[in-house]
Amino acid sequence: MTAEGAASETFEGGLLDEPTTADLRAKVTQAWREFAGSLGGLLPTLEPDSHVDLTLDPTASGTGTAVYSVSIRVLPDGVIEALAVGNAALPQEFRMDRTAVADMVALGWSPPGVLPGSGDSFGLRSSHDKASQFAAVVTRTLRDVYGAPHPAFLVYLVHDENDEPIEASPLGTARHEPSIEVALDALDEAGALEAALAGITEDVVPLEERVRTVVATMSKTSVDQLQVDADGDIGIRAGSAMVFVRVRDNPPLVDVFSPILTEVEPTEQLYVKLSELTNRMPIGRLYCAQDTVWASIPVFGRNFQAVHLMLAMQVMTGLADELDDRLHGEFGGKRFFGEGDKPSAPKAEEDEGHRPGMYL
């Protein structure tokens, strides 16, 4: 189980009217109900061979190299099938213990390999007329077993068997990957850049290579000259901030993220501010984990589009360089290239005994 302790302390900033008195747990519970209801309503409307991929954003959830996901497929004759990641696809330190595996089985999942074609994944099969119950099981799996603190930490993609996106109703506060298209007008790159990237979207080229080509082209440098750390993350300096690009394999996912501030005091005022800022962002999110404020924009690696990564990089580099200054001035902390910034005194004392573990 992952991040389970944070789930009870997470709140949805968009619904937060009175941060000092609001029932945060009730708001999180309501958000999960809305997500389950939306998923249960969507599944019966999809044509056979449609897919819904749900992924817990590993950057936002703090699960490191572990990627927890559930993939749903609509079969003929009103059958719905789901595969949920099992321990074989998880790093040793993030594998589910016996209790978590038992919880999966208790929810109705078949152990890996039992459902035909499930391989190393847990399997679940139902029908359209039981879509609500099916969605409830998937929701409880993501929340209670995989430890998603809030639906907005989920990224989802609805697509056909050829990986072409399908228009679908929103799944509550979860982030719809194709919605990145709505912000593409903000991308103003020359035709020469598009031409340089035109040949890297073929599936025969590994995702990591395609990503490095995009980053190098955007940075006006060569792949060999990219700044890559020991974890394989590509670093891009953006003023006083640093932006990282990380490629994950299972499922294919590209994280564009930045540690906006470190050594910051996690106060109620900070969570409210991050919530307000996230609600204004067309893509991505801001959150606080322990004493670090992070910004994250996940990009799906399946059916990878170079222009999506280009947009995420452009948004993140501008966002990080602006926000680290703004938030540091208000809440203190240390910027990545702040040369010894120190925390400022908090504006108001936090209520003793109440400190949300993550924010939405």
From TrEMBL:
Signal peptide range: none
Positions of region (Disordered): 335-360
Residue ranges of every copy of the TY-Chap N-terminal domain listed in the record: 30-154
Domain TY-Chap central: 207-338
One Pfam family named in its UniProt record: TY-Chap3
SUPFAM superfamilies registered for this protein in UniProt: Type III secretory system chaperone-like
Coiled coil: none
Protein name in UniProt: Uncharacterized protein
